[in-house]
């Protein structure tokens, strides 16, 4: 609830906001968030709606929001992100330039310089990824991302085993990998920008980073069981080298993989 009001104010202030379809998904909050969303939507009931998804995890929430929306291109932000005024129009321009573009991530600026840079991407350089490649983790971030609806359909939507509210982070990266192998190109585009007010400082960022590493191990574990297992192995090796270079532990990657397999086995037996 700390950031929801400010997030909604920024959405309301976007260029042409009254003509933009806005779907707000509450994923089991108990702090008045859903009431604030409902109040926001009363100003434009034809295009703005607030819905609830009781199944834990933001992948479940994202899928519910997708099904409730109608647009051909779907933009995603989190409730601690404040979009620029031209956020929607910038994404519209990005997708209009390339009909083969299925997904993208935008610039994520730190709202407060004292907070950890974890979860931000301040690059001003466009980067395009060809289809049928294993996307590097961190390339697509849920704080500012966009997908064509058809891309998500082709990929099979978000996997509810992943995302905040579940044991495994990385739902946006995981669906981007499937999108790429479904034949869609992806990219990073600095024009659509948000300010990320995540509120995490050094200690909290360390805990969050550990959660991200466990999620990465789970994503790798899932894709080792697919037709692109060989590409997954190559990316695992690259990730381990990156972790070692920055002095980070690699144990959480392996731990996340084992936890994922254990979860899948337990579910198969139930």
Automatic annotation (TrEMBL):
CDD domains: CESA_like. InterPro entries: Glyco_trans_2-like, Glycosyltransf_2, Nucleotide-diphossugar_trans. Gene3D superfamilies: Spore Coat Polysaccharide Biosynthesis Protein SpsA, Chain A (3.90.550.10). Residues 3-149 form the Glycosyltransferase 2-like domain. Pfam families: Glycos_transf_2 (PF00535). This is Glycosyltransferase 2-like domain-containing protein. The lineage of its organism: Bacteria, Pseudomonadati, Pseudomonadota, Alphaproteobacteria, Hyphomicrobiales.
């Amino acid at each position: 609830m700390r950031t929801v009001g400010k997030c909604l104010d920024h959405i309301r202030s976007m260029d042409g906001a009254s003509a933009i379809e806005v779907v707000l998904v509450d994923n089991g909050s108990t702090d008045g968030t859903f009431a604030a969303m409902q109040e926001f939507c009363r100003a434009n009931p034809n295009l703005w709606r607030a819905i609830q998804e009781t199944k834990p995890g933001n992948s479940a929430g994202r899928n519910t929001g997708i099904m409730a929306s109608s647009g051909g291109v779907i933009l995603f932000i989190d409730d601690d992100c404040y979009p620029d005024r031209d956020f929607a129009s910038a994404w519209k321009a990005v997708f209009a330039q390339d009909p083969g573009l299925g997904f993208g991530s935008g610039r994520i600026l730190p709202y407060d310089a004292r907070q950890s840079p974890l979860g931000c991407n301040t690059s001003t350089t466009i980067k395009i990824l060809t289809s049928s490649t294993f996307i590097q983790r961190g390339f697509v971030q849920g704080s500012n991302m966009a997908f064509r609806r058809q891309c998500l359909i082709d990929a099979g939507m978000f996997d509810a085993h992943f995302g905040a509210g579940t044991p495994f982070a990385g739902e946006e990266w995981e669906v981007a990998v499937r999108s790429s192998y479904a034949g869609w190109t992806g990219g990073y585009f600095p024009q659509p920008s948000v300010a990320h007010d995540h509120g995490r400082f050094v200690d909290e960022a360390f805990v969050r980073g550990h959660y991200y590493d466990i999620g990465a191990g789970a994503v790798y574990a899932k894709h080792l069981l697919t037709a692109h297992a060989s590409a997954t192995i190559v990316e695992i090796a690259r990730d381990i080298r990156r972790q070692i270079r920055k002095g980070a532990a690699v144990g959480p990657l392996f731990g996340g993989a084992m936890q994922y397999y254990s979860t899948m086995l337990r579910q198969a037996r139930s």
